[in-house]
Specification:
Amino acid/polyamine transporter I, 16 helices, 2 strands, 1% strand, globular
Length: 476
């Protein structure tokens, strides 16, 4: 990315990188808030966010592809067959591909923006650069809340898995507590480089479970929700859902791609940040192909008898097998999420402090405090909103679009507004404006649809009660 053509001096370029605010020659508050990258004559690694990474401190460097895949290929894939059941096969495929392209562009923008502004650690820093203090607080809170809410959804799915495997051996709340303690303990590992193996384990776990599900359904295993006796599988190429149902299905698909905000920290901790675009292309291609295959196959063989989460779709025995295979992956997803959410708060508290990258008592106290608080809040969300599809639809609509579509499209326009006005520039501006407007439309309509659906489900007694001991493994 080149600097603006009217920026000719080193001071001007520094000012541009710190905010595009036009105060050339003046000192911005951003040079106090956001650490500028420096170089150490002693040969020690100096990061624009973490500072000097000394040998006795945590090394915040990691390769990103596996963490991208594990962040994305997890809970989201378990709701996609339901989206196909609502939309139909062809509209479902079209929506997945469209969302993949839009969010794939957002992922790319995250990488280029981070390279242009190494001092940016997350969406909160982007908010501060573009809108000041209020931008930082609003986007930062939205990012943190999304991660915590999805962590809560992972706790909920883990409790479903335990209930399915053990045939509801104990109160569901107990299983959620077990999930919280286990995920929080492993999520407290300080650096992503040390939990990348968890990402591989989780990815293999989830993939093996959905492949087992597809094979079982393909060899005519009876769907668990099918009625006794004879039954007929109903599938459609193009369904005619109500607007509420259709937008909810779209939001479920958005949720499956809503890991974009975490990419800021991934690219910030990569050993080779300039390889981030390659990791995005590989990850997005693999994710989209996987989503299309799993959603289409499960929908084809289960039709209207798709369970939520989808792993419960096959028969009684296969249901246990699928959840048993998926359990490590569900736990791994929670670990990455609670780690990333806690890391955001951790950096906000200790940024510009020597305690950030050194193993001091303050460092450990703040870090484990962040892990504990994040885990407890996620547990409360999981138990207060004890349903899967409605929860992930609400997260996708209210939080997923805001910080996975609108933020990144605005980031590109803000970062490239002073570039030469070529045909390519005008086309890219138009594309980002269109994506931005689509995001706002889905946010407003999707949030409304999710609230209506939750209200209707409560009225119909279709959902378990908050903090209930009831078995949730058979819920639709």
């Amino acid at each position: 990315m080149s600097y603006p053509t009217n920026t000719s001096s080193e001071a001007d370029r520094d000012n541009y990188a710190l905010g595009h605010r036009g105060d050339v020659g003046k000192t911005s508050d951003l040079d106090v808030e956001l650490a500028k990258p420096t170089f150490n004559n002693d040969g020690k690694v100096v990061d624009a966010v973490w500072g000097t990474l000394e040998g006795n401190g945590p090394d915040y460097r990691v390769k990103a592809t596996v963490l991208q895949l594990k962040t994305q290929v997890g809970l989201g894939i378990l709701g996609l067959p339901t989206a196909f059941n609502i939309l139909g096969l062809i509209p479902g495929i079209i929506v997945i591909v469209a969302i993949a392209l839009i969010v794939g562009w957002s992922d790319y923008v995250v990488g280029t923006f981070k390279l242009n502004h190494p001092e940016v650690y997350g969406v909160a820093d982007v908010g501060y650069m573009t809108f000041g203090i209020w931008g930082r607080e609003i986007l930062g809170f939205a990012f943190w809340l999304q991660l915590v809410a999805v962590t809560g959804a992972s706790f909920l799915s883990i409790s479903v898995a335990f209930n399915a495997i053990t045939e509801h051996a104990t109160c569901t709340v107990v299983w959620a507590v077990v999930a919280m303690l286990f995920v929080g303990a492993f999520g407290s590992i300080q650096t992503m480089s040390r939990i990348s193996w968890i990402g591989w384990m989780g990815l293999i776990s989830i993939m093996s479970s959905v492949i087992t599900l597809m094979i079982a359904l393909g060899v005519a295993d009876r769907p668990s929700l099918a009625p006794p006796g004879e039954y007929t599988i109903e599938t459609t190429l193009a369904a005619t859902p109500s607007f509420i149902d259709a937008i909810n299905a779209v939001c479920i698909i958005i949720f499956s791609y809503a890991g974009t905000p975490t990419y800021f920290s991934f690219v910030g901790e990569m050993r080779e940040p300039r390889d981030f675009t390659k990791s995005v292309i590989v990850g997005q291609t693999f994710m989209t192909a996987t989503y299309l295959i799993v959603a289409a196959v499960v929908y084809h063989y289960a039709g209207q008898y798709i369970a939520s989460p989808a792993l419960g779709t096959a028969g009684h025995t296969i249901k246990k097998v699928c959840y048993g295979l998926a359990l490590p992956g569900l736990v791994a997803g929670g670990i990455v999420l609670v780690h990333t959410a806690s890391k955001y708060v951790f950096v906000r508290i200790l940024r510009k402090s020597t305690h950030l990258s050194k193993n001091t008592p303050t460092h450990y106290a703040v870090w484990y405090g962040c892990i504990s608080v994040t885990s407890v809040i996620a547990f409360i969300i999981a138990e207060a909103i004890p349903f899967f599809n409605d929860l992930i639809g609400l997260i996708g609509a209210l939080l997923g679009t805001l910080i996975c579509i609108q933020t990144e499209t605005y980031m590109w326009i803000w970062d490239n507004w002073r570039e030469p006005r070529t045909k390519k520039w005008y086309c890219l501006v138009a594309m980002n404006v269109i994506f931005h407007c689509i995001g706002w439309f889905i946010l407003v309509s999707g949030t409304y649809a999710a609230i209506v659906t939750i209200r209707d489900d409560f009225k119909a007694n279709a959902l378990s009660h908050p903090f209930s001991c009831a078995d949730n493994s058979g819920a639709n």
